[in-house]
């Protein structure tokens, strides 16, 4: 009995990998890739569908898990939305669009330490962080976040009281927290150099989680070899 190849035979492994990486990096339309490589759009789609999971599995050892986070290290965390075409169940009121939320943690020096599994974009950052179990074995007081994490015993800016204003020392404290937090925004921006992570996802929603896992694996691998 013949076994179906893992990638389109007319492309071969090398071109299938190139197409997949180009798609993930630039989020190019599949018909454009098909024209570039002289094949059909369906062939490009099959290459991406089959090679993406292979890349994810091949590079999974480079991806830190929650268990790899050091309890002695202070981390900065923030959530970011990875957009996809409008699906009402994934709508984020905060971002005014649809997508999936991942939690991103880095060290005080800005070294990317961890990216969570995706959660539906309609969920709050606090829910997503708890869902990831990142704080289960960690002292929340060693973690820094924005106002979306208030109430988790983390270091966060102070919210304005209802109908009131912050006093001077509270404003100064908030500025100091935000001055530390800027490195997580840089880490997220670097991750989103993969265009597929910051522009609308056009493939079927059922493939989005796998695509996110593939890009996370590629990104951590890239950081390792840089």
Automatic annotation (TrEMBL):
Residues 78-219 form the DDE Tnp4 domain. Residues 10-59 form the Transposase Helix-turn-helix domain. The keyword Cytoplasm does not apply. One of its GO terms (molecular function) is metal ion binding. It comes from the Bacteria. Its cofactor is a divalent metal cation. InterPro entries: HARBI1_dom, Transposase_HTH_dom. This is Transposase. It comes from Pilimelia terevasa. The lineage of its organism: Bacteria, Bacillati, Actinomycetota, Actinomycetes, Micromonosporales.
């Amino acid at each position: 009995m013949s076994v179906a190849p893992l990638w389109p035979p007319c492309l071969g492994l090398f071109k299938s990998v190139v197409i997949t990486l180009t798609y993930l990096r630039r989020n190019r339309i599949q018909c454009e890739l098909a024209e570039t490589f002289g094949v059909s759009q369906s062939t490009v789609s099959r290459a991406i569908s089959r090679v993406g999971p292979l890349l994810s599995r091949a590079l999974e050892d480079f991806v830190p898990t929650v268990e790899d986070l050091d309890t002695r290290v202070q981390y900065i965390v923030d959530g970011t939305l990875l957009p996809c075409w409008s699906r009402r169940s994934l709508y984020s009121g905060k971002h005014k669009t649809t997508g999936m939320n991942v939690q991103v943690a880095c060290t005080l020096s800005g070294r990317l330490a961890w990216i969570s599994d995706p959660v539906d974009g309609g969920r709050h950052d606090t829910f997503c962080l708890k869902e990831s179990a990142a704080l289960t074995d960690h002292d929340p007081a060693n973690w820094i976040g924005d106002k979306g994490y208030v109430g988790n015993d983390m270091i966060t800016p102070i919210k304005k009281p209802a109908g009131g204003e912050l006093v001077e020392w509270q404003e100064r404290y908030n500025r100091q927290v935000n001055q530390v937090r800027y490195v997580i925004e840089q880490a997220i921006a670097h991750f989103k150099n993969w265009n597929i992570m910051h522009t609308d996802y056009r493939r079927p929603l059922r493939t989005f989680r796998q695509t996110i896992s593939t890009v996370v694996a590629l990104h951590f691998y890239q950081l390792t070899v840089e």
